[in-house]
Amino acid sequence: MPMPASSAGPLQIKRRADRVVATLTRPEVRNAIDQDTIDRLHELCDELEREPRTLILTGSDGVFASGADIAQLRERRAADARRGINTRAFQRVRGLPMPVIAAIDGYALGGGAELAYAADIRIGTPALQIGNPETGLGIIAAAGATWRLPEIVGEARAAEMLLTGRILDAATAVAWGLVSSLYEPADLLAAAHAIADRIARNDPLATRYTKTALLAPRTAHPEIELELQAKLFESPEKERRMAAFLESRKR
């Protein structure tokens, strides 16, 4: 189904009833994430918090995002760091009610990598290069990498990446579990849509509750699953889907 025309600017957006595709489009700086991009991300999160849909994040021209905009970053001072300019936007992406899929081609570095870490599902291409070289620029990866990356790849591998600035190639990113699968660049967006299609076939409320449980701290388990399951056990959609399943087995 064709998607409505996307908006102009550093984050082009296409919408369907069950999903949104947001494409980073600053090719002149390899899709570096500037303040305007962050503002657009907040606007998109406002929309998806009100109207939950699956989000596909990707980049234009063979690059996901080469990092934060260094020209802007260079001018920021202590007060800017404490505001968490990128951190707050990426937290909202991570906390969106429905799944977020990052479709990564080429570079995903620094803030671009941290935006990808905020996704629930990451897929890539053989050209993928992902990592955090921030210490080489005299700063730290402060928009999520120091706590999300250990959860994704484990403490030892996260420490190696963050302390050395190592950039992973595609094969290593798959082996380390940072991305789940690779596709040729021409097939990447279609692969992301195929994942979104599988999500769309499931009950949206059950999908949302699954993400809620996945994001909950360890101390909230197992009680949070039990409470969410209790709500779903009373859901008309659960009754409908289970009745349809049992009926199909009679055929």
Automatic annotation (TrEMBL):
Q: Sorted alphabetically, which Pfam families does this protein's record hold?
A: ECH_1
| The organism's place on the tree of life at top rank | Bacteria
Under PANTHER family, the record lists: ENOYL-COA HYDRATASE, MITOCHONDRIAL, ENOYL-COA HYDRATASE-RELATED
Q: Please report the name of this protein according to its UniProt entry.
A: Enoyl-CoA hydratase/isomerase family protein
Source organism per entry reads: Microbacterium psychrotolerans
